Amino acid sequence: MPSAGKTTLARFLADRLKAEGRRVEVLDGDEIRRFLSAGLGFSRADRHINVQRVGLVSEVLARNGVLSLVPVIAPYADSREAVRLRHEKSGTPYIEVHVATPVEVCRERDVKGLYARQAAGELTGLTGVDDPYEAPVDPELLLTTQDRTPPDSADAVYAVLAERGLV
Question: Which of 3, 9, 71, 82 could in theory staple to 106 by disulfide, Cβ–Cβ 3.0 to 4.6 A?
Answer without folding.
Answer: 3
